[in-house]
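Q: Hi! Curious about what MmcQ-like protein looks like structurally. Here's the sequence.
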Amino acid sequence: MNIEELRDYCLSKPGATEGLPFGEETLVFKVGEKIFLLVGLTEGNRFNAKCDPERAIILREQYEEIVPGYHMNKKHWNTVYMNGRLNFKQLHEIIDHSYELIFNNLPKNKQDEIGG
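A: Let's find out. The predicted structure is below.
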């Protein structure tokens, strides 16, 4: 998966938006004004995604391409390298999980507004 494919997939999520709130080097994807994924534009081979803490540990043990989140809360965020053995389906599952964690924690009226 390259950065354009990653961007297209993230923006296909209901209510997903993109922006550069931390400067021109980090592209951020949000739902309901909450971040679900960050990707460095200079280092486009990896992204940070939110993850359930127990699942994060399992994924890190299974895949060397998944490590504790760079510059993030390492309990809740993973850095995922896209140039390894993870396939599109696995990368999509990681993105989906991150999106769903954020979406499901939004207030009910915000979820209804987004319609995911």
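A: A fun detail: The chain has one domain: 3-114.
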